Amino acid sequence: MIRKCEEHGYFRGEECLKCGERGKFMLDDEHEMRLGRFVSGVLRHFPDDVGLDMDAQGWIELDAFCEAMKKRYKWAGKMRLVSLVESDPKQRYEIDNSFIRARYGHSIDVDLDYPLYDSDVLYYGVSQEEVDMLLENGIKPYRQTYIHLSNSSQRARQAASVHTDNPVILEIDAASAAKDGYEFLCANEEIVLSKEILPEYIEIADD
């Protein structure tokens, strides 16, 4: 459930964690899920299917997006869209003035313009079955434009646990890769994006 606290903005749950107020109702769980699927699909995978133009950096005009959204869901106005974006704990989307885009997760070709991430190491969680192949061949995007890396081994384990019960955490020598010209983009506070990780920069993390 998404609600709006007048003092602290949009939040998910029954009450604002900062002040305990219930706030104004915005979306129930069912409508949040339905709208979230539409937003994810359009901003990450098929803007053309709903007649929307996306620029090279993944941006779509907000008003045009809202028009397409309301054709599908008459109850889904701009305020409810903003509530979905701003309350998202995973920071999957962003609104900048009159444009909206997904921060990560694209299967279509985009050239995201995030700041470079400066770190010595990054992490990537994989299944037991994938380890040897990735250590030998490196990591490349699968069904996505970018690889999603984590800035902590704990976050990498959480992300990988969605797909496998006993993930192995790979450690990426980001400092050496960056010196060799590879770019790491800071998508949000936890996720870092890259186009390719060669095997010489990968090893199994020491838990």
TrEMBL record:
Entry superkingdom: Archaea
Entries under Gene3D superfamilies matching the protein: 3.20.170.30, RNA 2'-phosphotransferase, Tpt1/KptA family, N-terminal domain
Enzyme class, first EC level, given as a word: transferase
EC number: 2.7.1.-
GO BP term, pick one: tRNA splicing, via endonucleolytic cleavage and ligation
SUPFAM superfamilies per UniProt: ADP-ribosylation (SSF56399)
InterPro entries linked to this entry: Ptrans_KptA/Tpt1, RNA_2'-PTrans_C, RNA_2'-PTrans_KptA, RNA_2'-PTrans_N
Functional note: Removes the 2'-phosphate from RNA via an intermediate in which the phosphate is ADP-ribosylated by NAD followed by a presumed transesterification to release the RNA and generate ADP-ribose 1''-2''-cyclic phosphate (APPR>P). May function as an ADP-ribosylase.
Name used for this protein in its record: Probable RNA 2'-phosphotransferase
Species this protein is from: Methanohalophilus mahii (strain ATCC 35705 / DSM 5219 / SLP)
